[in-house]
Amino acid sequence: MKLILIYENLRIALGSIRSNLLRTILTVLIIGIGITALIGILTAISSIQAAISSKFTGMGANSFTIENRGMNVQVGKNSLRQKNYGYISFREAMTFKDEFDYPAIVAVSYMATGAATIKAENTKSNPNVAVYGVDENFIEVEGHNLKWGRHFSNQEIRDHRHMAVLGSALAKKLYPEGENPVEKVIALGGAKYLVIGVLEEKGAGFGSQSDNIILLPVTNVRQQFSRPKMSYKIVVKAMDSQQIDNAISEATGLFRIIRRLTVHDEDNFNVNKSDNLSRILIESTGMVALLASIIGLITLVGAAIGLMNIMLVAVAERTREIGIRKAMGATTKAIRNQFLFESIIIGQVGGFVGIILGIFVGNLMSIALEAPFIVPWNWVILGVVICLVVGLLSGLMPAMKASKLDPIESLRYE
């Protein structure tokens, strides 16, 4: 009997929704916009976090960097270091590379400039090419792959050879017809370099130029871009990711010896794991997610008020119908359930529309950042629950009002 009553209430509720289609569509849009704001913003933030993780884990979880302690990174209130210390010299970097006796690969590099212009025959790049001086281990440690040609050998590094490896974006700019640049000669400043390799496309993001670069032997850069206080970067890639903390301890101890620090001296250099910066950025987006959630919930409160108002109008419009149903034997509970079912159905339809739109809008950020497609299942489930609660709360007052109407007065209405 109860199932028949529930079915009858659902049938009447659906019939009422169909007969007032315009009002229903407007109500669904009110709730859908609220859910779209909530799911869309949070999906976009999840996309940003996924992109950050993807961009900054290119070196792998088993890498860490030794840099000048004055080269600080600050995001929001988080800062790695703020005091300026001694620069890492070429001698110190190479000594560390030669003496670091641990199952790991060590790469030494130096960013000479981020505003170089490269010429190739009749073609010239924009003055925004990043020039890196690297050693023979740089490509493997930094997570690059070769599309054409090869990387520098250890002997070519030692001989200060005028050779170059091009990033994919730079190669396309210099050779727009898609020809292989290997064995071609390019000009940088007043020097000419033989191209021996081209990197595969890696993608750029968050201000990086991982494709618009040119790699030169670090010894050559040391001569051609000589300047005071050149500080080199050391990247260490441990063979076993489980031993990364031991490798960091070994590297810190060795570099303290190289820099002649006593037991009482603090480290005058930074040792950063490859995921440090991504972790700081992801933590910073957490506050944005909290604020976005508050904004979305405020929007949903507005949607709930709108739904309640529309349901109250529906009760006033259908007063005579309610009187007829009561006169035919409908109980107070049946009338109340009818309006509650209407409110819940409208809320769930609005939630479904909002979830679909929210995922689509949020993943526009994934497309822009070339991140994986995100479906925030936790927020989807929460959205369904919120819409259920909104439907219940919005329909409760109108349903109670409808159920308490006097049948005689209702029949005399209008």
Structural class: alpha+beta
What is the gyration radius calculated from CA atoms?
33 Å
- How do the helices and strands follow one another from N- to C-terminus? HHEEEHEEEEHEHEHEEEHEHEHHHHH
Count all strands and give the number. Answer: 14
* Mean of all residue-level pLDDT scores: 79
- Detail the poorly predicted runs: 71-77, 79-84
State the helical fraction: 40-55%
Our estimate of the beta-strand percent is 15-25%
Choose one word for the global shape.
elongated
**How many strands, what sense, and barrel or not for the largest sheet?**
12 strands, mixed
Q: Ends: how far apart?
A: 34 Å
Number of helices: 13
What would you say about this model in short?
This protein has 414 residues and is of the alpha+beta class. It contains 13 helices and 14 strands.
Describe this structure in words.
By secondary structure, this protein is of the alpha+beta class. It is built from 13 helices and 14 strands. The strands form two sheets. Strands 1, 4, 5, 6, 7, 8, 9, 10, 11, 12, 13 and 14 form a twelve-stranded mixed β-sheet that branches. It has a two-stranded antiparallel ribbon with strand order 2-3. A hairpin with a 2-residue loop joins β5 and β6. α9 packs parallel to α12 (377-403). The protein starts with a helix and ends with a helix.
Q: What distinguishing features does this structure have?
A:
12-stranded mixed β-sheet, 13 helices, single chain, 414 residues, two-stranded antiparallel ribbon, alpha+beta
